[in-house]
Design a protein that fits this description.
Blueprint: H1 4-43, H2 47-74, H3 77-91, H4 112-143, H5 155-177, H6 180-211, H7 221-224, H8 228-256, H9 264-277, H10 282-306, H11 313-337, H12 345-370, H13 376-386, H14 396-402, H15 404-419, H16 427-443, H17 448-469, E1 472-478, E2 481-491, E3 497-505, E4 508-514, H18 532-539, E5 548-552, E6 568-573, H19 576-582, H20 590-594, E7 598-602, H21 605-610, E8 617-622, H22 637-646, E9 647-656, H23 664-674, E10 678-684, E11 696-702, H24 705-713, E12 720-721
Parallel strand pairs: 5-6, 5-8, 6-7, 8-9
Antiparallel strand pairs: 1-2, 2-3, 3-4, 9-11, 10-11, 10-12
Helix pairs in contact: 1-2, 1-4, 1-5, 1-6, 2-4, 2-12, 3-4, 3-6, 4-6, 4-12, 5-9, 8-11, 8-12, 8-13, 9-11, 10-11, 10-16, 13-17, 15-17, 16-17
Length: about 750
């Protein structure tokens, strides 16, 4: 019979170590978006900034795990405590969180090294301490006299629970209710709490070692000496889910929907899988997950890749997330199943972190340069299927035989696609054939190599079929996303079919052009002559002969067809590929025909505009979108201060705010009210419009109401005063809240 005092002590020790891991993981997942927001106004919205930050975090995490492995395997507990105490005391030099004084990013060179150095000085040591906590504290728990010391891996569930709660809390609780200064203060207090908890754990370890001479957990014969194959297996089981996570996140925003905060869903599932597989009931769940996964793949492949048009986007999203859940559950379940004894605990976590880091680096730095689409996502689906548990390891001959069927599928598919001139007339037959092949692949699930590569062959044949059906003329990928030029057909004013070109960034159309010679100078979509931009240029036609005009966001270049020879236009675009596409006459001719008196500035628009002379512009048009989202640093109060500083006293600021998910007019209305600006809005909804004239929302702002009175008095459109809002704070570089403007 267990003594009650020992039971209570056992529970309190477990809660202490689990609580330490929980707090540590929470601090990690709050620090990443927190410091990213601190850097954002200094460096603009380039994805390279976020990518550099992410690689820095992953690198520090790996170094933290390496440190934990070295000190726990080479030093006695007392020396471990002494060394870690020194590291913690040194980390207090970085508190409270803040940027180094007088830090200024380089303006003429790549800021990557500056970002890394700034992160290292500002948060390197605290982040390092937080990164060491999970493996080190679990190793300490394994070394104390506790009834669960022989298998402390369940504590990893507490760590991931902290990550999950912090992930959800930041956009929905912390960001909406706290500015950056408060967040920095509270994070520093949370870090001090973590250090006290680590000290308490160290005290228990010290007392335990002083009172007992504990034996190492009993190791199985396989664990006495780890072989290379076993460690590579761990590496693959960590690499694939990490890459799959980033691949799905990119795929969602590129091919499904660019919905704000949608990236939280895959990351939530990813963290949840760790909580489940390292829980005490994992052994009962894992075999069930492995058996169910092939059944999930039938509807997933059928509707997510072969025939997605039959589903609304939210069902499409659900299918991908469910398939992702089963894939990472199988991989992480295998990791948990093959975890070693506590003798190799820190080495196990070190390899896991290294695999996760490699997965992130592959998606961030390799995939954008070797693929023109999000192809790493289906590749990792194949890899995840290969990592399913095998009943026996096939011989080389058996493995090659298993490849015959998927290789045949690819060869036959490519021959058909290349030989049939009008492939689309057989579209339905091909779709049905691919669905039948999916069912056949399911029946071959006992042969892991055949099952994985057959699934991959079907997915890539389906992607190729849809690429042909979309009439994609050009597709390329950069750090900024996937850009595609497509040829489509409309019915013209005479009732005849006419081809035209469209520019897509992800799922969002960023411009279109009709091809008949007499229509090539006609701005379309959000910039049409009947729409708000056409009305603005028409109303000020007599006054704008010598205007200096700035345009943020190039798209296909349609706005330049409002330019006059006596005007000077400055075009700001962050993605060089957009400039290249808009300048190629085989795709779009707006720039060739209209942009004669224009200057191109490549880089973040806010930083570029800030370098212009004060009072330079008569009109500044903000049309910057990343897929369907406006970069938040371009719409804060500080950003508007810069814009109006660069505008003449009677200058006009025009904001394009068309958006499927966000009510951006709320942000601009509050800015106009607090900055005492005149502002008008038009939510344009055309009645019986000509082809490619679409609904669009625009806001115009000026320092004086007289500047905008010609528009409000004109009969050209329904310009109205901005509605007032009192339910949210103004957006600043210190405070933004996406949730508050969700439609």
């Amino acid at each position: 019979m267990t003594h009650p005092a020992k039971t209570n002590q056992s529970l309190s020790w477990t809660l202490l170590f689990a609580g330490t891991l929980f707090v540590s993981a929470s601090l990690m997942f709050v620090l990443q978006p927190l410091f990213g927001k601190i850097l954002l106004p200094l460096l603009g919205g380039s994805p390279a900034v976020w990518n550099t930050c992410m690689v820095f975090y992953q690198t520090i995490l790996f170094l933290g795990y390496l440190y934990a492995h070295i000190i726990s395997s080479r030093f006695k507990p007392t020396r471990q405590i002494q060394l870690h105490s020194v590291v913690i005391l040194l980390s207090f030099l970085a508190l409270p969180l803040a940027l180094p004084e007088n830090t200024v990013p380089p303006t003429e060179s790549d800021p990557t090294l500056w970002i890394v150095w700034t992160l290292l000085i500002a948060i390197g040591l605290p982040l390092f301490v937080v990164s060491t906590t999970s493996p080190l504290i679990q190793k300490w728990f394994a070394s104390i006299k506790h009834r669960n010391s022989d298998d402390p891996y369940f504590l990893y569930a507490a760590s991931n629970a902290g990550s999950l709660i912090a992930l959800i809390s930041y956009p929905f609780i912390i960001e909406p209710h706290m500015d950056l200064s408060a967040q920095k203060t509270d994070w520093s207090l949370g870090y001090i709490l973590l250090c006290l908890l680590i000290a308490a754990c160290a005290t228990l370890l010290y007392k335990s070692k002083a009172q007992h001479t504990p034996t190492e957990a009993i190791a199985t014969p396989a664990d006495i000496k780890l072989n290379v194959g076993q460690q590579l297996h761990w590496l693959a089981l960590a690499f694939v889910p990490s890459s799959l996570l980033l691949g799905l996140t990119n795929f969602i925003s590129t091919d499904i929907a660019s919905v704000p905060l949608l990236w939280i869903i895959p990351l939530t599932v990813y963290l949840l899988s760790f909580i489940i597989v390292f829980s005490t009931w994992h052994d009962a769940i894992h075999p069930i997950i492995v058996k169910i996964q092939p059944f999930i793949l039938i509807p997933f492949i059928t509707y997510a890749f072969i025939n997605p048009a039959d589903l609304p986007y939210w069902m499409y999203l659900i299918l991908h997330v469910i398939a992702f859940f089963f894939a990472v559950m199988v991989c992480h379940g295998e990791l948990s199943k093959h975890r070693p004894s506590t003798q190799y605990l820190t080495q196990f976590y070190l390899i896991m972190s290294f695999g996760g880091m490699l997965g992130g680096m592959f998606n961030t730095f390799v995939a954008p340069f070797i693929f023109n689409g999000i192809y790493e996502y289906p590749l990792m689906i194949i890899a995840a299927l290969l990592l399913r548990p095998w009943s026996t390891t096939p011989s080389l001959k058996s493995a090659l035989l298993q490849l015959i069927w998927p290789a045949s599928l690819i060869v036959i598919g490519l021959i058909l696609y290349a030989s049939i001139s009008d492939l689309l007339q057989y579209f339905d037959i091909i779709v049905i054939s691919l669905i039948v092949l999916t069912i056949i692949s399911f029946l071959l699930r006992s042969k892991p190599i055949t099952f994985a590569f057959s699934t991959g062959a079907i997915i890539f044949l389906a992607l190729g079929l849809h690429g042909l059906s979309s009439h994609t003329l050009y597709q390329e990928r950069t750090f900024f996303g996937v850009l595609a030029v497509r040829e489509s057909v409309l019915t013209d004013e005479k009732g005849q079919d006419e081809t035209y070109h469209e520019l897509f960034h992800g799922t969002t159309k960023h411009g279109a052009q009709r091809l008949p010679e007499d229509l090539q100078k006609t701005p379309l979509t959000y910039y049409s002559r009947p729409g708000p931009m056409g009305q603005l240029f028409k109303e000020f036609d007599a006054k704008n002969q010598n205007w200096n005009i700035g345009v943020v966001g190039l798209g296909a270049g349609a706005l330049t067809c409002y330019a006059k020879e006596s005007q000077q236009w400055t075009l700001y675009e962050i993605d060089p590929l957009v400039v290249d596409i808009a300048s190629r006459p085989e795709y779009f001719t707006y720039m060739k025909l209209c942009a004669h008196q224009s200057t191109m500035r490549i880089g973040d628009a806010r930083l570029s505009i800030d370098k212009e002379l004060d009072g330079h512009f008569d009109l500044l048009i903000m049309d910057a979108f990343s897929s369907d989202s406006v970069p938040t640093h371009l719409i804060t109060k500080e950003a508007l201060d810069i814009y109006f500083k660069k505008l003449k006293p009677n200058g006009i600021l025009a904001f394009h705010i068309t958006n499927r998910h966000l009510a951006l007019k709320k942000v601009l209305s509050i800015h106009a009210e607090q900055m005492h600006l005149a502002a008008l809005i038009q939510e344009y909804k055309p009645q019986n419009p000509p082809p490619l004239v679409v609904a669009t929302d625009w806001v115009v702002m000026a320092k004086k109401s007289d500047t905008l009175s010609p528009l409000s008095l004109s009969q050209l459109g329904n310009w109205e005063k901005m509605p007032l809002y009192f339910d949210m704070k103004a957006w600043t570089d210190d405070f933004t809240n996406i949730v508050s403007i969700w439609k």
